[in-house]
Write a structure and sequence with these properties.
Structural class: alpha+beta
CATH class: Alpha Beta
CATH topology: Nuclear Transport Factor 2, Chain: A
Number of helices: 4
Radius of gyration: 14 Å
Protein name: SnoaL-like domain-containing protein
Organism: Gordonia westfalica
Number of strands: 7
CATH architecture: Roll
Helix content: 10-25%
Largest sheet: 5 strands, antiparallel
Strand content: 25-35%
Number of domains: 1
Order of helices and strands: EEHHHHEEEEE
Length: 145
Amino acid sequence: MNESWREVKSDAEAEEFAAGIEDFPVRLGMEFCSALKSGDKLHLLPAAVTPESRDYWGDFQWAVEKVRSIQRLGYGSIADRAAGEDRVAYFKLISKDIEEPYQVNEDVPMVMIDAAAILTIVQRPDGQWRVHHLGDYVLPEDAPL
């Protein structure tokens, strides 16, 4: 599967772009990361995470620092589903630490884009999607489904 890379220049741009996305895990991933990057909507984030991961997130400050540390933050335009489990999605945070700005005008195979971090998003039994983890992939057998 191919995926293009998009640099996020501002929180407003990320929110506007996310509003037009039909794949809810992508929209949730962009809005969640935008809130972490800006740091001004942290009070809303507990409602966006799984109950099982609430202690993991704490006050979200470590996650704020993690997201802000990613140079030239960009997001993948799709959330890959876990093999054999559509209720687990992986949203990619991508770093493009370069000197000159650029825009990708064609699809770039995702295997060629290294993710700086992965946001694991799971679909709960009630059908709602919630963020579970930031960092590496969480396998379906370790995710609260």
